[in-house]
Amino acid sequence: MARLTIERWFSRSYRFQCTTFIKCILCLIILYPLNVKFGMQYYIWTERSFENEYHLRMTRIDITKLDEENPEKVLGVPKYIVSNTFIINNEYLCNNGDSETVNNPHLLILVKSAVEKWTARQAIRMTWAKKEFLEKNNIKLAFFLGTLRSKTMSSSANGQNFSVEKESQYYKDIIQIDKVDFHYHNSYKMVMMLRWISQYCSSKSRHLPDNDLRKYVLFVDDDYFIDLTSLLIYINKIDEDLHMTSYERQTFLTGYVYQRSRPRRLLNDRWYISINDYPYEHYPPYATGGCFLMTRSSARLFNIASKYIPLFRFCDVYMGLLAYSMSIKLIPNNDLFSSYDSSSILLTNQTRILSRSKSFFTNSINLNSTSKLICIHGYRGKELIRIWNDIYQTNLTLSVIN
């Protein structure tokens, strides 16, 4: 009897162990691919400390000792030169078509776009970047393009084919580089923007470097609604700030700034980055690439730094890495520079949005106001035209090049 009881007990124990073992194996089979997909193993075992390790390995650029005319004297031979060239350089944009004119604009706006996004560019020209407003306020605007991803892709608008060359000749606001338009090529485009500013829209070559301390560049994507009046109010406040030092103006960069943002390890995430490409636990502070403002003097420094810091997949993080290498502290203005999509936030209450948007554009200039959004994300092409018509009670429709 006792022997039978023991055998039964061992039999039950054996079955329990087998069942438990099988369950564990099944859990591992299920959890491992999920673990890999969601990148949890990086958070726990693999990621390195940004402060302790990146800080020790990074290239340091001391801008206080930098000779902008000859940076190689301090930094050595550049290690990372982007080999792209300008197809359309629009070299006299900042000088009113005259190479001898020292008439750089107070504000330069560079809009990242793509060849096929003609409707987005045309909507911007017809709404917040009207030619009359730009000329009145000493603003220059250019669209920064790459090339088509495929020769078979059509560059058409409202059924009409057109070429970038024709658009450039007609509007004189196109800059094009020989790099395919693709989201992950935006870092190349950013480097070329900085290069273009340094070569064609800088007072450095005119021996007036301090002039660039109060000249500004707005970098913006073609799906943003920009309140230029609010932007000019903000710039005017900066210009009149007597407590702002020359160094602060020289390194000025502001926008919607992310602090200690974590890398995305989810494999199907648009912002995915592998542990091999970026092994650290968080990014340096960076301003969202969709809309940010800097002085032209600062743009020249970033252009120099780009030759000594390797390109990174995401252009906004790349700018953060450049700033970190130069010990430049970004200025957060998250209440002025929106990084959110209008479709998910602003369009949830159409009545509230329209009344709020109308207040942006009908309020008189108030230098003490700091509550007006400068950038609103999520309006491109026909959607931008629609919201403009709603705000101003106009009846604009997209026009085409004749």
TrEMBL record:
In the record, the note on similarity to other proteins reads:
Belongs to the glycosyltransferase 31 family.
User: What broad class of enzyme is this?
Assistant: transferase
Q: Which GO terms describe its molecular function?
A: hexosyltransferase activity; UDP-glycosyltransferase activity
Task: Name the PANTHER family for this protein.
Answer: BETA-1,3-GALACTOSYLTRANSFERASE BRN (PTHR11214:SF349), BETA-1,3-N-ACETYLGLUCOSAMINYLTRANSFERASE (PTHR11214)
> Membrane topology per the record?
Single-pass type II membrane protein
Name assigned to this protein: Hexosyltransferase
What organism is the protein native to?
A: Rotaria magnacalcarata
For this protein, the Enzyme Commission number is: 2.4.1.-
Where the protein is mainly located, per its record? Golgi
Example GO CC term: the record gives: Golgi membrane
Which InterPro entries does the UniProt record give? Glyco_trans_31
Highest taxon of the lineage: Eukaryota
| Record field: transmembrane | 21-45
Which Gene Ontology BP terms does the record give? protein O-linked glycosylation
Keyword annotations for this protein, in alphabetical order, are: Glycosyltransferase, Golgi apparatus, Membrane, Signal-anchor, Transferase, Transmembrane, Transmembrane helix
